[in-house]
Amino acid sequence: SPTKTVLSPSTQAILACFFNQYPTPSELHPHADAPAFGFSAMTASRAIKELTALQLFELHTRGRNKVLCLTLSRQELWDRAKPHLRSPVMQTAWSFDPHLLRHTDLRLAGESALAQHTSLNAPPQITLACSSARFKQLRGQGIQFEPRATPGAVALQVWRYNPSSEPRHKTVELMSLWLSLQHESDDRLQLALNELEEQFVW
Question: What residues contact residue 106 under an 8 Å CB cut-off, 6+ apart?
Answer without folding.
Answer: 100, 128, 129, 130, 134, 156, 164
